[in-house]
Design brief:
12 strands, single chain, alpha/beta, globular, 15 helices, five-stranded mixed β-sheet, Aspartate Aminotransferase, domain 2
Length: 409
């Protein structure tokens, strides 16, 4: 079964998550098979045309250039994200760097949300700016006017991430898009935290949506990958050239199959992630040992109204700050049994991490402080386990954190 261009208008999200892009093999299997061949037999060669190599038309010549399993995933990602084109890459950072290389050259300017993922900051700061001569401006992108003010005639890319990691600040996608000229810079949005289920950047004016499929899109913590989705034909062609020809950073077939499998349950997983996260956030907000909770689903979040307007749900990631700082955070983490202390997010299991000492440890301390990443801040990826077990584990952590360390004799 192949999906036509109007599939998004014919079938709702949950149906597309299960069926879009699914290709039955000759045996009639209902699941797209894993096609591991590195090369494909060619039926005739035309010197004027060259080798066939248009995966969109079912033509394949070499697996780096196109693979049936990966193509099925790309068709599903495109229809779920509301785009005409999708490309599955070897990692989320591969997706981000490919978009950056497709839009920027030395002397251009890029405007990037200041409190972005640490890997994104390293790309923009240590590679694009330091090695390739791109003028990079990091801005507080919670205000669309600040973003617009940073744009000049040399600006070719605006990079947003919403919510941001780990403080869960929001960027107003439509607000930024409205302030850009039609022929202005490319507006790209990292949509990893929300997934296509809860947020649609392209529908709000973005030119590109990027995902680390490692997280919610796959949802089972067993595949590393990324995706680029766009409606821009020229940009899609350049991204495909870079990923498939020049860089070779495409997603392998087995990982593509894993992500296809994960997408089948994306809607039900996201609903449970959100329900559990909302309960956890409310529990934390009422706890005396917690100084602050950062979750867009709480009315106390300073951008709660934007969250309600921009997303159809609030996702499964939150962060909170312990009153007691680093030592209290250590005792809290050491006592947990259901939550796993680990980086990453978006899997069915609940994870918790200490940004200052883990995901953002390489970020200078001054920059961490500037973006509110304190020694007492913990980021939580709330899984789909029974909520009572999750709350009980948090209580266990608080009980340990609040016990004073014995004094040395």
């Amino acid at each position: 079964m192949d999906d036509s261009d109007d599939d998004r208008g014919r079938r709702r999200f949950a149906t597309r998550a299960v069926a879009a892009g699914e290709h039955h093999d000759r045996a009639g299997g209902v699941v797209t098979p894993i096609q591991l061949s590195s090369t494909y037999a060619v039926d005739g060669v035309d010197p004027d045309r060259g080798l066939p190599n248009d995966p969109a038309n079912g033509e394949f010549v070499y697996a780096r250039m196109g693979n049936p399993t990966r193509r099925a995933l790309e068709e599903r990602l495109a229809t779920l994200a509301g785009g005409d084109h999708a490309l599955a890459t070897a990692s989320g950072m591969a997706a981000i760097s490919t978009v950056a290389m497709a839009t920027l050259k030395p002397g251009d300017r890029a405007v990037c949300v200041a409190d972005c993922y640490s890997g994104t900051r390293a790309l923009f700061e240590d590679v694009l700016a330091a090695r390739l001569g791109v003028d990079v401006a990091f801005v507080d992108a919670t205000d669309p006017d600040r973003v617009a003010a940073a744009v000049d005639d040399e600006t070719e890319l605006i990079w947003l991430e919403t919510p941001t990691n780990p403080r869960m600040r929001l960027c107003d996608i439509a607000g930024v898009a409205e302030r850009l000229a039609d022929d202005g810079p490319t507006l790209a949005v990292d949509n990893t935290f929300m997934s296509p289920y809860f947020q649609s950047p392209l529908a709000q004016g973005a030119d590109v949506a990027v995902h680390s499929t490692t997280k919610y899109v796959n949802g089972h913590s067993d595949s590393v990958g990324g995706a680029v989705i766009t409606d821009d034909d020229d940009l899609a062609e350049e991204v495909a050239f870079l990923a498939q020809v020049a860089l070779g950073n495409v997603l392998p077939p087995f990982d593509a199959w894993l992500v296809l499998r994960g997408l089948r349950t994306l809607p039900v997983r996201m609903r449970q992630h959100e329900a559990n996260a909302q309960t956890v956030a409310e529990f934390l907000a009422d706890h005396d040992a917690v100084a602050a909770v950062h979750y867009p689903g709480l009315p106390s979040h300073p951008q709660h109204d934007l969250a309600v307007r921009q997303t159809s749900g609030h996702g499964g990631v939150l962060s909170f700050e312990l009153e007691g700082g680093l030592e209290e955070a250590r005792r809290f983490l050491d006592a947990l049994e259901t939550f796993t202390v680990a980086v990453s997010l978006g899997g069915v299991e609940s994870l918790i991490e200490h940004p200052a000492g883990m995901t953002h440890a390489e970020v200078p301390a001054e920059t961490r402080r500037e973006h509110g990443i304190t020694d007492g801040l913990l980021r939580v990826s709330v899984g789909i386990e029974d909520i009572e077990d999750l709350i009980a584990d948090l209580r266990r952590g608080f009980a340990a954190a609040e016990r004073a360390e014995p004094a040395d004799d």
